[in-house]
Each structure stands twice: as structure tokens, then as C-alpha cells.
Amino acid sequence: MHLFINCLAANLGSGLTYVHNIVPQIAARAELRATLAVPSKLRNSLGSARTISFLEMDIAAGAAGRFCWEQSYLRSVVQGSGAEVLISAGNFALWRSPVPQILLSGNCLYTCADFNRDLLARRAYRIWADTWIRTFFARRSVRWADCTVAPSQAFAETLQSWGVGKVVGIHHGFDREIFFADDGGLPAAIQEQIDGDALRLIFVSHYNYYRNFETLLRAVPYIKERLGGRRVQLLLTCKLGEKDSGYYSAKAARGLIRQLGISGDVVELGAVPYYVLQHVIRACHIYVTAAYAETFAHPLVEAMACGLPVVASDLPVHREICGDAAVYFPRFSPQMLAERVVELEQSLALREKLSDAALKRSRDFSWRDHLDQIVGLARRLKRGSVEYAHAA
Q1: Residue ranges in the chain assigned as alpha helix (H)
Q2: Domains detected in the chain
Q3: Model confidence pLDDT, tens digit, residues 320-349
Q4: What is the pTM of this model?
């Protein structure tokens, strides 16, 4: 089986996580060949394998430029590679693919009413218009692909509500060996910022609107009030400057920290190298997320693998991924978020129960199993299985 995997959209977040984890899994399989189209800046970090060919491509003009290039030229590139199945890993599919096509769709913002309301409330009209355009082509892409794969069943059901194309849910994986490979401990520069006597909460994400940082920040004063004299630290793996990703402005979040008087309680670590992340998570007591939109959330699995109890916004995908390893709260309620944190802090039995469930649940996610299912789907498409036939 020869797969062509279009990874040109893998620039940050889950896209990078996906590429870095799926490449070694493909390399370990003698029966697989793969051609990967990747941005040049990623190539050196992906190593080399006898069965994998890398095509380094740098497409200008962002997502729009990438989409136009793919629709104009990718078809001939796929044909020239000799691949039998195309895997489009960037939310957008190739129209009239020359071979059966699997679309990996993992952007819930195209289906999220909360995100649209949030953008309009912030007067972020440029992002709103850009999202509307992307949604149009994301919806067409589900129609163009022979099958669409979502990283959770919850998001698969959301895509199925569009009523176009075949959609299946296949969980992303987790590689324990890679995540826990480093035994060097917590770097001194990070250790110096951690208050050893505080209740330490952690949230792993670059700044954006849909991860709902503001609800998380507003919860901190409530937690401090309920815990009396107990110090509280919220650790973030980003810095809330004027801009974070160049797309979302963190100015309002920075202003909120000053307004709430919690500057001394919020630790902005900035981007944390992946090999260090386990040490940072293990230095904390509770993982928290107030995200109002999500499709899988890799940091949840990483936190569970470290044995941290989770306090998560009550989204179907969070319940699917965490199950009994988390307690949940209404996604826009800082008061209820605080209540859940205090509930955990004051109950050792509950913390231990969630920690045990977290360790167990984290073992249910495997990149090997993920690739098994993707390859199985590709083989069925190649055979022209009726079950996964194109449903345009």
C-alpha cells in the first residue's frame, strides 16, 4: 500500500502533533510506503526512513494560497508519486482526486456557533469572514472526499449533521515512549517560577479565543476566595502579549489579568518543548480547560497519562476523551469551574479516584491503533468498498 499524505497545513498545534507521531508509525511498517508533502521547516525534525519519501513544499499566502495550490497542482503531484490512496490532512480535500481520498478533518470552528458569536462580540470581523470562507470549502471537502475521518466520535457526529459524505470517528493516539522519554527533570528556569506551596493548575495551549482563556482567568479569584489563605498558581504554556499566533489578539486577556488583580497568580511559561511537557504537568496538581470548542485535545491525554485529575468544560468531546477521569462544568461559568477545583482540592479520595481513572484511560489511545484503522480504511477504499463509497 502506497499512501500520499498531504501535511502542508501542519504548522502548529494538533497538526504538528499528528505528523510527528504518525511518521515513526509508518516507518515501522514494512508493508507500507508513503509520500509526505511537508513544509520545509518540518523536514529535519521528521528523520529518515527507507519507506518514506518527503516532498518539501513552501506555499505562500497562508491557507488561501495553500488551498489554491492544492487544487491547481496537487493532482499531478499525487499522480506522479504512484500513490494508491491520498490522505488530505489539512481539513480541505482535493476536488476530483485521481485516487481514493481520505480527508482528515479536525477543525471544529467550522461548525461552532459559540465561536461565531465570540468573534462578533469581539468585533473580530476579519477572522469571522475568513472562518466563513473556510467553512464553505470545508463543507465542500467532506463532499469531495471518499471518506472523512474525525479525531473523535463527537466531532464525527457534528460533521455528519452536514448531511454530505461519509464520516467516521477514529481517535488520535498517544505515544508513551516519546512523551516520557526525557528523564532530566524540570528545567531550573521553569522550577524558579513555580510556588511549591501553591495549588498549581495547568492549561496547555497557545492563545486563541475558542480555548476560552477568559473564563479560566475569571475563575482564579473565586478559587482563591474559596480556599482562604491557600496560594493558587495557574500555569499557561503561552505568553499573553499583544499577539500570540499572529491571528488572535491576547490584549483583552492581558487586561483581564490586571483587572482581576491576579498577575502574581498566573505564570506565563511560553511555549514548552514537548520533551519537557511531562515534567511541567507533573509539577502541577490539576489540569484545567475551559475550551468551548474542541475536536480531540491531545493535552488532556498527556495530562491523564501523568495521573492528573482533570477539570473540563462540559463538551461531548471532553466526556468522550476523559470519561470518569474528569469533573465537568458549564463552559462559560468561572464560578462552577472554581467549585470543581475546590471540590478536588478538598477531597483526597476524589483526587485519587480521578487520578487512577486518568492513568487507565490514557492507555486507551494509541497511534498504532490509529494507523491500523486508517490503513484498513484505505484498503477498503482501494477495493471500492460499498460501505465507504463516495456519497456526493
Answers
A1: 13-27, 40-43, 62-69, 75-81, 113-121, 125-144, 153-160, 176-179, 188-191, 213-226, 251-260, 274-282, 298-305, 316-322, 334-345, 348-362, 367-383
A2: 2-173+366-385 (3.40.50.2000), 177-362 (3.40.50.2000)
A3: 999 999 999 999 999 999 999 999 999 999
A4: 0.91
